[in-house]
Structures are given as structure tokens and as C-alpha cells.
Amino acid sequence: MKITLELPAELLNELMVLTGATSKSQLVRETLEEHIKLIKRKRLLTMKGSIDLENLL
């Protein structure tokens, strides 16, 4: 999907250097994927101790 975004060039350039991304599309895709993983990890951590695995089976 094509989309037009206005993003600060300094942020894009810094993130490209930090991640090693070779294109802006790759950078945005990888950044979105990592952010989704982070959100899912945080949600799992909030559930810690709330699931009884002993009685699951």
C-alpha cells in the first residue's frame, strides 16, 4: 500500500543508521513490526501470574 507521510528527516536518517535499513520502506516496515512485537510483549507481561497452567490440561 502506498501512503504519504510527513516525517522528520533527522529521525528517519538516524533510524536508518541504527537499524541498517537500506530503504525507507524497509525501515518503516521493520519499525512497525518491532513496535507490534513490543506491544504484544508488554501485554503478555501484564498477564504474568494470571493464567493457571496447572488446570489447563
TrEMBL record:
Pfam families linked: VapB_antitoxin (PF09957)
Protein's name in the database: Antitoxin of type II TA system, VapB
